[in-house]
Amino acid sequence: MPQKQIGILTAGGDAPGLNAAIRGIGKTALSHYDMQILGFQKGFRGIAQNQSFVLNSENLAGILTLGGTILGTSRDKPHKMAIGGKSMDMTNAIIETYEQLHLDCLVCLGGGGTQKNALHLKNASLNIISLPKTIDNDVAGTDMTFGFDTALGIATEAIDRLHSTAHSHHRIIVAELMGHNAGWLTLGAGIAGGADVILIPEIPYTIESIADAIKRRVQSGSRFSIVAVAEGALTHEQARTVKVLTEEIAAATDKVERKNLKSKLWQHEQVHINNTLNLSRQLEESTGLESRTSILGHLQRGGTPSAGDRILATHLGAATADFIDQGNYGVMVAYKNHQAIGVPLEEIAGIKKRVPLDHPWIETARKVGTSLGD
Ligand code: F6P
After folding, report:
1. For residue 179, how far is its CA from the centre of ligand 1 (angstroms)?
2. Does the pTM of the predicted model rise above 0.85?
3. 286, CA 20 to 30 Å: which among 76, 126, 227, 365?
4. In this structure, which residue's CA is closest to atom 9 in ligand 1?
């Protein structure tokens, strides 16, 4: 049997655990299956422009604990890539590189957007396998994505630290966490860090409800409060507008109308960027307590992966090499009930896993008296 040639790329936002996954795939592919591996640089751009280097036992060593990705990453899409100031469809260029390098499979490590791009390339007849990575934990078909556990730890520690200063000054501190349009990170860190209010995109909030919860705490003797707010959390009114626009976009048959609606939604979302600062100011006005804001941002994506993410990424990475050996392509290697399983890309691409309203974490938060702002 000729040696199998595999390509690996990392796409979308980086996340702790990417290097652990690259190492897991690489070490298993090299030592168990005698495959050859190429790493493409900067996501799909690297394969479109044929920028790669050989991954071997030397450059795969010592990367387990490294944050980021040794391959680099980008948010480029195969079919819409900025080249020389123009948006180009680079699908054919990717196919050309794939054939020129005699690849047997391309492994794409990424979040929701990457799963869609992986399906696009699968539909273009390439052998594709993907892995689920993101601190947002919002990829469908997997119990967990790698990157999430590390971000959860960082966000929890931040909430812990904010407690003592909020307590000393009798202040409200509004801590904004990442997560895009899903509340996993904020809900998890909010519960683990004992936030008094947790606001997630799945549950729209009102300022009155949050202010009431804070005033109740003051009445019971707690003159400080921690509000953990997801970057995608919305007021009731904002959530209604987003819902209407999203439905209109889905129903639009005319290309121009669709484009206009998308731009309207984008403009609306630009206003939401200030939600956390506005919330902090409004809470100060309605409670009479001083309020401060802490936006954690990319801190949550940086640094060394947690032990949990190292194990998950290594497990899924090693299993990926097994899938390649078996010729089991067109799947995302997902984590289900502690097992690595292959889920067909068609079943998960384009589906966002948000927090279900009956999820035990939501019930738990309410039981311990946390306000969810609704
Ligand atoms: O998807 C991961 C994530 O960190 C989201 O939580 C956040 O909304 C987004 O990426 C930020 O993207 P960028 O790094 O491109 O600003």
Report:
1. 7
2. yes
3. 365
4. 180
Name residue, tokens 């993101």: 134
Distance CA(234)–CA(230), nearest Å, equals: 9
**Tokens linked to 121:** 């390339």
**Interval 262-294: pLDDT, tens:** 999 999 989 899 999 999 999 999 999 999 999
Which atom from ligand 1 is nearest to the alpha carbon of 138? 1
Query: CA torsion 13→14→20→22, rounded to 10°?
Result: 60
Q: For residue 86, give Cα distances in angstroms to 80, 89, 232.
A: 9, 10, 30
Structure tokens given for 150: 């590390």
User: CA 159 to CA 155: how far, in whole Å?
Assistant: 6
Ligand 1 atom closest to residue 112's alpha carbon, by position in its atom list: 1
Report CA(155)–ligand 1 centroid distance (Å): 15
- Report the alpha-carbon distance of residue 226 to residue 215 in Å, rounded: 13
Among 150, 176, 178, 229, the mutation site with the greatest number of ligand 1 atoms within 8 A of its Cβ is: 178
Q: Give dist(CA 54, CA 189) in Å, integer.
A: 39
